[in-house]
Design a protein that fits this description.
The complex is a heterotrimer of chains A (about 170), B (about 375) and C (about 350).
Chain A: H1 25-36, E1 41-48, E2 51-56, H2 61-72, E3 76-84, E4 88-97, E5 102-111, E6 116-118, H3 127-138, E7 141-143
Parallel strand pairs in A: 2-5, 6-7
Antiparallel strand pairs in A: 1-2, 3-4, 4-5
Chain B: H1 3-28, H2 31-45, H3 47-85, H4 102-111, H5 123-142, H6 164-172, H7 175-185, H8 189-220, H9 225-231, H10 242-256, H11 280-305, H12 317-338, H13 344-371
Helix pairs in contact in B: 1-2, 1-3, 3-11, 3-12, 4-11, 5-6, 5-7, 5-11, 7-8, 8-9, 8-10, 8-13, 10-11, 10-13, 11-12
Chain C: E1 3-8, E2 20-26, E3 29-36, H1 44-49, H2 56-61, H3 68-83, H4 89-118, H5 121-142, E4 151-152, E5 155-156, H6 164-187, H7 190-196, H8 204-209, H9 215-218, H10 226-229, H11 250-274, E6 290-299, E7 302-311, E8 316-322, H12 324-329, H13 332-336, H14 341-350, H15 355-359
Antiparallel strand pairs in C: 1-2, 2-3, 4-5, 6-7, 7-8
Helix pairs in contact in C: 3-4, 4-5, 4-11, 4-14, 5-6, 6-11
The chains are: A alpha/beta (about 170), B mainly alpha (about 375), C alpha+beta (about 350).
Amino acid sequence: MVDGGRGEQRREGIERPPSLISESPEERVIKALLEAFPTAVTDFKKLRQGVLRARIERRDLFKACMMLRDQQGFEHLSMISAVEYDTRFEVVYHITSYQNRLLVELITTTPKEDPSVDSISSIWGGANWQEREAYDLMGVKFNNHPKLERILLPSDYLYHPLRKDFKG
Amino acid sequence: MNLYTFCYGLIHWLVDLVNNLWFWLGGHLPGALGGFFTWAGDLAKSDLNISFFAILLEVLIMVIIALINVLNFIWIDRKWMGRMFDFYGPYYVGYRIGGWLQNLADGIKLFVKEIIVPKKADRLGFLLGPVIFVASSVAALSTIQFSPQFGVLTSGVDTGVPAGVLIAFAFFAIAPFSILVTGWSSNNKFTLIGGLRSAAQMMSYEIPMLLVVASVFLLSGSFSFVGVVGAQHSVWFFIPLFIGFLVFLTCIVAEVEIQPFDLAEAEAELVEGWTTELPGFRFGLFMMTSYMRGYIGGALVVTLFLGGWQGPSLIPAELWFLIKAYLVFLVIEWMRWSNMRVRIDQLLNIGWKRLMPLAVINLLIAVALKTMGWF
Amino acid sequence: MAEMWINMGPQHPMTHGLWNLRIKVDGETIVDAEPVVGYLHRGIEKLAEARTYTQVIPITDRLCYGASLAWSHLYCTAAEDLMGVEVPERAEYLRVAALEMQRIASHLMWLAAYAADLGAMIGFIYSMRDREVFIDLLQALTGSRITYNYPRIGGVAHDAPPDFARDSLRACDYMEKKLKEYEDLYEGSKVFMLRNEGVGILSKEDAMNLGITGPSLRGSGVKCDVRKDMPYSVYPEMDFEAASHPDGDCYSRYRVRMDEMYQSCKIIRQAVTKMPAGKWRVVAPRNGPVGTGIGRVEDPRGEGMMYIVGDGTDRPYRLKIRSPIFVSVSAAPKLLVGYKVADVVAIMGGLDMCIGETDR
């Protein structure tokens, strides 16, 4: 039911750019991301119907998110997850488009010595607390965040408990 | 024979009984000591003293009757609420009398609790506020008359206190002051907001209520309970003054601060409003007093609009009065348990923009009726 | 009166849990607000890393006391996505029936708390009484009443008891009758409408941008529902509508939840009548593969998501939980400023707070 009839999927009240109706929305998003950031976006993949994954360099993350919101109609940031690997942190953004029924998984990588990415809380207000949570539990810093403080743990806590060197 | 003559006779008999000893002592003890006893006996025998104590006894009787009624009211409230809410209400304490003893058990529980005064509270105001609240309510209670014969009277004639209704309203209106004092002196932001809300609420509902009361006074031409009820001999005032009746009922609910208008102790946003910091039995007294005020409200509605103690003489007048007061209380409780709470600005809007014009219209109707000579 | 800060919480009747809403009031008008959460943080994400995939299911039940089944189901869908497990069809129907019962129970609990907040104890008692019907059904199905531990990776724990379909249908009939009664009780009350209409208005754009999801977002007129947008389980075969209401105020959010209960009754009917015979569980592999899995469901409170990273062992490497209320509560300043102190309970109550999932 998701596949057929693009025109029916138009929601009440949400305007969609008319020129883009003909294309499949997944292809359109991939194409737009690749055109705008040809060097930064790597490893894109359609996971299943309506779910995309792309990796993006952290320097272009803010601009890519801006573009996704303003030009591709991604109104909603679902989730920000920070994952620790041996040499890097991955920050995973799940971004949703209500009008196109799309979910994009943007993965950005940041080295362990300098775990920081640009804050996107000025783009999606819902990112504010999720970034604070990622900072609190995983220790990833978000540049230009309005209030990057601990949120779930006490403000005088010393550790970031979701890191693997913290034995729970 | 009315309550005053009964109490007068009782006190007189008691004084005579004691004076036998006093005068015997005065006759047998030497000098100044004997003179003192004689003087004391004469003083006790004087009419002023006896009537003073007779009135005190009357007040005591009225308050005891009222307290028993209040216990009934709490029980009825709980049972009625239980029926509306699909449960039994009090059940186990006093199993054979329908859980009536539950109130006493709650009272004992609250009574044995420690009285804690918050460290930074204003001690005098904190301790005095609830006392003023209770005392003013009890004072208002003692003015209620159950029948021309039964009430706090000052002579053997069945006219009652000349300005009895006015005194009742005057005592009734002291409560917001005590609420404000308690709320402020508890040194807690929730109690402070509760106290201020209560002050604003009482102020805006007092005026339409007294306008309605004025229309009743206008029609009856009297300030006393006996006069007001006597004027309703042919037709109860809620028929000609139906608007006033509704306004008065609403205002009484607001004055007593129960459910649609209980903003001063709105438990959802203000924890318990101005009673948040009250400990143990002070809270218990407040709880009891709020029911007591509900009882006074019901009694005032009955007096002013529902013909007081008038009714077929199958059952005594006093019982008629109580039955009507209980029915009004049931209606108030029905409103209480099926309604939500309004917001403070909406409350003031209702008071000033709805009830106030209605009260004025009601007053105009009363004036018209009076000038037409129908009353 | 000068402006002052008031701490509503952590121990306050408004909070329905353990959080703190600091509001700055000028008289009775709110000029600033700051929610403080974290009092109930149990580190569930960290706990999950030390348990095997199956052992995580009871922990995810503890995420929300109002809708625990939705969370364990969400975890199972995420784990199935990671492992590539196909769930038998009967299990999917059982899950959908249980999930919708859970949704009704959760919404009734919200209604109970909301009515009590606004001052109508009668609504609290009635809603809790009728919630019992669905809790009993879930007890018959799963064996417990609050934390069900029912879904499994690759199916559900047990089959439905005999007569489950008949009882469910009767419960739905009963519930629809009672919902009419609630509508009379609330919408017939002038006071309820006074307290709800025009309070806590949230525009469509703000709601989407601030990440508010679920009934609160649909109450702002956005017609989006994960059950429709990214259908999971057997929702595509069900005939229902995503309820929405355009006004964006507290009444609108109330209306959406009431309509959702009707729709849930409809889904339960279809699920129990269409339910095929067959297996209700397949055996899932003990070790998960290296990779990631996402689960995205429509929780009673909004969009619930889980992101699982597997490293080839029998324990999840990382489990990230997206709680709808955690994001919604961050919008509190936007919602509250300009309204009265008494509106705090209507607005925050209208979001259906659940602190277990907020703090995790």
